[in-house]
């Protein structure tokens, strides 16, 4: 199988050289090559058919929600279809063994297929971006991944996307835990590993992808989550400040309307859509701006309660 793939790649390189002045033909040749090579790889024992196509489709939806460039989307598409190519260098026995049951040595050998993919695709400059994404598909958000221990934003965004979608399939099939899971349970595995293994934003977007959200709905949900993140950070700062106060005065909790919210007020709680949005902080202009934006974009169903000192 490895010789077959290498022969196919070399033949493709020769074809591209003969088409170096025909951009459109090269572009079509690239797509046809990637799809054909992906199908060849998936005929190898232990590599499941259809997996790469699923990852490519879901990863593209996530990339659209993030407004990634056309070039970045292309790299993700190619990487998704080719991310298993390095597995053809592994023994069939290893490929048919669930990941959870592998020894530590075998696990590292298995993960090494991401680096082998890089070697196989070496010299295909049009796939350089995709090759980088494939190499880093097993990096962890906390920096404890493979092969380079990259952390958070240092991990290519495309790799973070591929990691979430690919591991979701692994959880469904039971390869990661030894237990086949329903969709909700598999998604829960991603959720509890946000910040440690996965980019939290990517997991949240993917959760909405699984619900069948459109690209526009994905973008709206992402915008809302970012506003909530800002509010949470403001709450943390306010909570720290309040916890350092040595003298606590008696207070009264009063509900006010949004236009009455002013800089310097002490917020007890703000509810949005029946859910707690922010609590225990001192209002600054950014909080007012965020709450106003939420009300404008998602409806003015706010409940604002402030603290007044009792004299």
Automatic annotation (TrEMBL):
Residues 26-222 form the HD-GYP domain. It comes from the Bacteria. This is HD-GYP domain-containing protein.
């Amino acid at each position: 199988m490895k010789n077959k793939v290498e022969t196919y790649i070399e033949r493709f390189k020769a074809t591209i050289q003969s088409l170096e002045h025909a951009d459109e033909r090269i572009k079509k040749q690239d797509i046809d090559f990637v799809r054909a090579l992906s199908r060849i790889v998936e005929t190898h024992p232990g590599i499941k058919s259809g997996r790469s196509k699923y990852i490519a489709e879901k990863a593209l939806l996530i990339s659209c929600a993030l407004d990634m460039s056309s070039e970045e989307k292309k790299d993700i598409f190619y990487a998704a279809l080719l991310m298993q190519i390095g597995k053809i260098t592994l023994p069939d026995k290893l490929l048919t063994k669930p990941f959870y049951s592998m020894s530590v040595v075998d696990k590292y050998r298995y993960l090494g297929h991401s680096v082998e993919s890089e070697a196989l695709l070496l010299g295909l400059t049009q796939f350089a971006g995709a090759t980088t994404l494939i190499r880093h598909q097993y990096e962890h958000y906390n920096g404890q991944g493979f092969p380079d221990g990259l952390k958070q934003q240092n991990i290519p965004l495309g790799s973070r996307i591929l990691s979430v979608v690919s591991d979701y399939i692994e959880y469904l099939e039971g390869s990661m835990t030894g237990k086949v899971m329903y969709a909700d349970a598999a998604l829960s595995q991603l959720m509890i590993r946000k910040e440690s293994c996965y980019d939290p934003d990517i997991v949240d977007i993917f959760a909405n992808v699984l619900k069948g959200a459109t690209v526009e709905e994905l973008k709206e949900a992402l915008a809302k989550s970012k506003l909530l993140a800002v509010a949470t950070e403001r709450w943390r700062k306010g909570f720290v400040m309040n916890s350092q106060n040595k003298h606590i005065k008696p207070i009264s909790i009063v509900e006010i309307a949004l236009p009455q919210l002013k800089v310097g007020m002490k917020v007890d709680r703000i509810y949005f859509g029946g859910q707690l949005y922010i609590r225990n902080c001192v209002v600054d202009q950014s909080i007012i701006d965020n709450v106003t934006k939420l009300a404008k974009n998602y409806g003015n169903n706010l409940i604002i309660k402030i603290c007044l000192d009792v004299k």
